[in-house]
Structure to design on (223 residues):
C-alpha cells in the first residue's frame, strides 16, 4: 500500500506570496493532519480534517488554512508569507476512528526569502 | 506544552540495546503512549504504541510502568540506522491535538 505523499517536496517563495501544499493520504484513510516543523519550535500541530470537515485546530494565525476533498486528499494554504513560515510542513493520515495510528508523509520543505 | 518529558540526548553502542525513557506523569486513563522517530528531516515514522500492557513489534518493545506514569522504548539491537530523534507522545484519540516535545536525539555509535 502506498504511503502518504506530499507535493511539492521543496518550494521557494518570497515574502508576501501565498503557497498551497498538497497531501494524499494512504488509501482508505479519512483523516489528514498537518504539522509545521521548525528548528526553534519543533513539531507543531496545525489542523486536522476528517470527512472534509476541520475537526481540530492548533494555535496558528488565520493565514494558515486548509481543506479536504471528498477523496480525502488535503491541501493547506499559507497566505501573505513571512520569513518565519520557512519550515518543513508534514501531513499525517489515519483511518480517523477513535484510536488509530497516524502515518506521516515525507514533508514539504518551504523556504521563504 | 507537551505532556511528556524525555532526555534531550542519548548514546548507544551499535549492537547493544537502546533504552529510551519517557515520563508522562499526568497521563489519564484513556490516553495511549505513542512512539515515533524522525531520521534527519524525514517525516516521523511510527514505531509502537500502548495503553497499559507491554507491547512488542518487529521494531521495538514498549514497557509501561504499572502506574502508567512512565515508559521505556527498547530497541533490542541498535544499528547505525537507528540514529534519529525519538518522540514519545500521549493522546486519547486519533483526532486529538498532538503535542510533540523536543524528543530524545539518539546517536548509535560504531
Amino acid at each position: 500500500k502506498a504511503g502518504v505523499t506530499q507535493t511539492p517536496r521543496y518550494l521557494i517563495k518570497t515574502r508576501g506570496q501565498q503557497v498551497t501544499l498538497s497531501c494524499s493520504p494512504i488509501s482508505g484513510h479519512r483523516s489528514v493532519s498537518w504539522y509545521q516543523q521548525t528548528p526553534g519550535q519543533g513539531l507543531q500541530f496545525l489542523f486536522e480534517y476528517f470527512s472534509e470537515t476541520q475537526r481540530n485546530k492548533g494555535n496558528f494565525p488565520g493565514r494558515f488554512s486548509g481543506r479536504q476533498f471528498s477523496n480525502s486528499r488535503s491541501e493547506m494554504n499559507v497566505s501573505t508569507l513571512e520569513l518565519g513560515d520557512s519550515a518543513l510542513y508534514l501531513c499525517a493520515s489515519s483511518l480517523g476512528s477513535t484510536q488509530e495510528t497516524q502515518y506521516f508523509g515525507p514533508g514539504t520543505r518551504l523556504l521563504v526569502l | 506544552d507537551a505532556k511528556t518529558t524525555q532526555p534531550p540526548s542519548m548514546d548507544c553502542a551499535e549492537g547493544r540495546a537502546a533504552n529510551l525513557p519517557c515520563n508522562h506523569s499526568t497521563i489519564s486513563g484513556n490516553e495511549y503512549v505513542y512512539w515515533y522517530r524522525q531520521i534527519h528531516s524525514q517525516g516521523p515514522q511510527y514505531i509502537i504504541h500502548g495503553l497499559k500492557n507491554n507491547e512488542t513489534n518487529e521494531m521495538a518493545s514498549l514497557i509501561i510502568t504499572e502506574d502508567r506514569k512512565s515508559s521505556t522504548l527498547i530497541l533490542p539491537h541498535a544499528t547505525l540506522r537507528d540514529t534519529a530523534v525519538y518522540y514519545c507522545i500521549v493522546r486519547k484519540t486519533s483526532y486529538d491535538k498532538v503535542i510533540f516535545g523536543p524528543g530524545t536525539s539518539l546517536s548509535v555509535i560504531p
